[in-house]
Design a protein that fits this description.
GO terms for molecular function: beta-catenin binding; cadherin binding; calcium ion binding. One of its GO terms (biological process) is cell morphogenesis. One of its GO terms (cellular component) is catenin complex. By secondary structure, this protein is mostly beta strands. Helix content is 6%, strand content 42%. It contains three helices and 52 strands. The strands form 16 sheets. Strands 45, 47, 50, 51 and 52 form a five-stranded mixed β-sheet that branches. Strands 2-9-8-5 form a four-stranded mixed β-sheet, covered by helices on one side. Strands 11-18-17-14 form a four-stranded mixed β-sheet, covered by helices on one side. The protein is elongated and about 160 Å long.
Length: 705
């Protein structure tokens, strides 16, 4: 079904002969099937010079156009696509016709769409002053150039007028591809065209007078470049790597190969077909895979038994894939790429120990790796189907052993993590199991070879004596008499099967206060214990002792003794500060606040008792007031002259018996002017002599009396 009354570009009575198809666009309704040799439609081609050497080409090889213009199918065809293109070429002209195939439900709207698009298609609905029919030019034409490709017709004649052509390809980049004969409207191309660079040109043509004034137009002139098969298929998305699990069912899709062809996708020039040219390696079958010629899907074609990774020469196959255009016809261009297919491993082999029993020897008291257990596994070493996981399933009640996997060798590293005791057990037997990180496939199980026995022999070594308890603790008063017994230490030899004697010695005694009997371990004092010593920390003195057995060589054990020292009142209190200053005209006669401290501990320290020694002279010059348990204040009873005074003050602690310390407080009476204090002792001698005279006078009076 077509509509010639709408689609005719021009009627014979309106226009002179125009070379090419008399109708360039057709719309037909798609039948259920195009029947072989049945007329579809008739195409009229006229080169206006007798159609000498006329030849037709159809874009679909299932159709042909006979010399009389009849379009027929070469066989029964049900799938065609949306359009057919017919290229006609004679000795003097060539042209292209388009046949659009509509579904049945598209027919009603086709006429309206055609009328809407007639400007785009270059199809006139009425007689025009300028007729510019679309021009179709094959790409890759050879010289000579320029080459006549079309003609623009003016219905009112060409006398006294000129044709003017413009647009991309004429006066816009790329410039100079097309040109028009100003006098007769012949359109020429000046060089070879490349459809893949520019597929369509939209030009404009107009008619002007000799002064350049536009008379008709502009009218659109469409130039379409006809595709030639000048581009090979290309694989652009490589590298192409696919994976398939070993044992996969026949027909399992591995990967898809997709090539690209720069030619017109609507023609056979870009219709690709795929093929496997070569497979490497060729075993166990030279045809392990098949590629869908249209989709490019690669699938397996061998049985699951042949797809066994462990029996293959290599788990990697390389396929050389060919893509050919023109639907795979011999004339098609080709491109190739390599597809790499990796056969992935699945856990179809259980790990097996290389022997049923392993031997190990370890010295008592030692930790670390004692033996490496070896296994074999035929699966892929790079996967969890090969990596081993070991476990101790019997013989390890005390958790003295652990086993871990060496990630490089896959061996099981059996270690002692708790020191073994020869005297408790000289032999150990472990049962070890090995599995994979990944689970086995359902029809494979772990067998007897996945377990092994490890026989461990413990070697006896001479162990050092052990103190009981360790550390040892005792409490003593400081200042106990030299030669006092502190305690008796006790050490035993773990080597119960060996009969050895033990001797003791002092290892570390920071203050040099202690000694030990080498035979019975009695610890005594060699000096006075002093809680206030710098070697005592937090009332505790620490010393270390050695216990040495009679083995060959002898073994040594170390014991720690902590002596907590109880305080006794053996330190007198001290007074601070011992120097004070006051102005001779001071109004505030509170001279200084005194504090007392004691190295001993409570209750041998505060509260302290502060007292002034007896003052000499006719009148008292100062007094002392207690402020709290640790402080007192010295107060002048009157202003004194500038001098230095020594005030004896006694401080007594609360110990039983109490200890007293007398300290002289040096009091400097200074002159103070303008916030400056002058404490030079120029009058000190005078004051001292005065005190001396007063004292002598007092003695004289007493003796006289």
């Amino acid at each position: 079904f077509f509509f010639p009354q709408v689609l005719l570009l021009a009627c014979a009575e309106d226009l002179e002969c125009v070379p090419g198809f008399q109708q360039k666009v057709f719309y037909i309704e798609k039948p259920f099937e195009f029947r072989e040799d049945r007329l579809i439609l008739n195409l009229k081609f006229d080169d206006c010079q007798g159609n000498n050497k006329l030849n037709f080409e159809v874009s679909n090889p299932d159709f042909r156009v006979e010399l009389d213009g009849n379009l027929v199918a070469l066989k029964n065809v049900s799938e065609v696509g949306r359009a057919l293109f017919v290229h006609a070429r004679s000795e003097h002209a060539e042209d292209m016709a388009e046949i659009f195939i509509l579904e049945a439900n598209e027919k009603r709207g086709a006429l309206k769409e055609i009328l809407k698009l007639e400007g785009n298609l270059g199809i006139p609905r009425q007689k025009r002053a300028i007729l510019a029919t679309p021009i179709l030019i094959p790409e890759n034409q050879r010289p000579p150039f320029p080459r006549l490709v079309g003609k623009v017709i003016r219905s009112e004649g060409t006398e006294g007028v000129k044709f003017r052509l413009s647009g991309k390809g004429v006066d816009q980049d790329p410039k100079g591809i097309f040109r028009i004969n100003e006098m007769n409207g012949d359109v020429s191309v000046t060089r070879t065209l490349d459809r893949e660079a520019i597929a369509n040109y939209e030009l404009e043509v107009e008619v002007v007078d000799m002064n350049g004034k536009t008379l008709d137009g502009p009218v659109r002139l469409d130039v379409s470049v006809i595709d030639q098969n000048d581009n090979r298929p290309m694989f652009k998305e490589g590298p192409y790597v696919g994976h398939v699990m070993e044992g996969s069912a026949t027909g399992t899709t591995v990967m898809r190969m997709a090539a690209f062809d720069a030619d017109d996708a609507g023609t056979d020039n870009a219709l690709l077909r795929y093929n496997i040219l070569r497979q490497t390696p060729t075993k166990p079958s030279p045809n392990m895979f098949y590629i869908d010629p249209e989709k490019g899907d690669i699938v397996t074609v061998v049985s699951p038994a042949l797809l066994d990774r462990e029996t293959m020469e290599s788990p990697k196959y390389e396929l050389v894939i060919e893509a050919k255009d023109m639907g795979g016809m011999d004339v098609g261009l080709t491109g190739t790429a390599t597809a790499t297919i990796l056969i992935d491993d699945k856990n179809d082999h259980a790990p097996e120990f290389t022997k049923k029993e392993f031997q190990a020897t370890v010295k008592e008291g030692v930790t670390g790796v004692i033996v490496n257990l070896t296994v074999g596994d035929r699966d892929d070493p790079a996967t969890g189907a090969w990596r081993a996981v070991y476990s101790i399933i019997n013989g390890n009640p005390g958790q003295s052993f652990e086993i871990h996997t060496n990630p490089q060798t896959n061996e099981g590293m059996l270690s002692v993590v708790k020191p073994l005791d020869y005297e408790i057990s000289a032999f150990h037997t472990l049962l070890i199991k090995v599995e994979n990180e990944d689970p086995l496939i359902p029809d494979i199980t772990y067998g007897p070879s996945s377990t092994a026995t490890v026989q461990i022999t413990v070697e006896d070594v001479n162990e050092g004596p052990v103190f009981h308890p360790n550390p040892m603790a005792v409490t003593k008063q400081e200042n106990i008499p030299v030669g006092s017994v502190v305690l008796t230490v006790n050490a035993t030899d773990p080597d119960t099967l060996q009969h050895q004697t033990i001797r003791y010695s002092v290892y570390k005694d920071p203050a040099g206060w202690l000694e030990i009997n080498p035979t019975n371990g009695t610890v005594g004092t060699t000096a006075v214990l002093d809680r206030e010593s710098p070697f005592v920390h937090n009332n505790v003195y620490t010393a270390l002792f050695l216990a040495i057995d009679s083995g060959n060589p002898p073994a040594t054990g170390t014991g720690t003794l902590h002596i907590t020292l109880e305080d006794v009142n053996d330190n007198v209190p001290s007074l601070y500060p011992t120097l004070a200053k006051v102005c001779d005209d001071a109004k505030d006669l509170r001279v200084v606040v005194l504090g007392a401290s004691d190295k001993d501990l409570h209750p041998n320290t505060d509260p302290f008792k502060f007292e002034l020694s007896k003052q000499s002279g006719p009148e008292k010059l100062w007094r002392i007031n207690r402020l709290n348990n640790t402080h007192a204040q010295v107060i002048l009873l009157q202003n004194l002259k500038k001098a230095n005074y020594n005030i004896p003050i006694s401080v007594t602690d609360s110990g039983k018996p109490p200890l007293t310390n007398t300290t002289e407080l040096r009091l400097q009476v200074c002159t103070c002017k303008k916030s400056k204090m002058d404490c030079s002792a120029s009058d000190a001698l005078h004051i001292s002599l005065t005190l001396i005279l007063l004292s002598l006078l007092s003695l004289f009076c007493k003796s006289f009396a």
